[in-house]
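Justification of computing resources. Each target in the renewal requires a structure prediction run like the one illustrated here; the chain below, 214 residues long, is used simply to show the kind of job we budget for.
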Amino acid sequence: AQREGSASEFSSSLYLREPEDMRDPLVRRIAALAARAAGVPLDCAEPLCITRYIAGQRYDWHYDDAYYERRATWLAYLTTVRAGGETVFPLAFPAPVVEPHKIPTAAEFRKFRERWPNAVSVSPAQGHALLFFNRDEHNIQDQRSLHGSLPVEPANGPEDEKWIVQVWLHDKPCPGVTGAWLDSPELPAGPQAAGETSHIAAAPLVCLPELPAQ
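Resulting structure tokens:
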């Protein structure tokens, strides 16, 4: 595993990209679940990324395909957050004509929430998963996929922390990843066959691929 730290206001992430990580049955089953949800083969999935947010931390607006042609993003919430931590798509529905830099920052968005009544907001709930597409059918970046994480609000107890697992998916096999995914035993017929992943596999899935065109 490889860790990527960041400033105290933002999240910290751990990437499970080492060969021994990608051979782990649970890691592979989660990746396979994400790939099936997006409709792509397993070798189109990037290594899993586990991200942690503590109270006050956020992630500002960004596109997941800013540097790579990531077709889709799948993420599952590993914890329930009682206050804050929502994943927000400020331009999603309906898509307003607005420059992204004019949107309040993730840190300030809650104060101006009434100005964006149609933004899509997903609250972290343990076991729930979220799927959205970053590029359209012409492989062009979809501006409606702009998203961020609002700050986790202080609370009393473990709900102060938001944990998620993310899988980014491509239309083509990921260079340097294909061999690692395939260099291990075959998966069972379906993710639900693995008892340790049944909680995630059976969880509600919020999909945002069919948003109205601009």
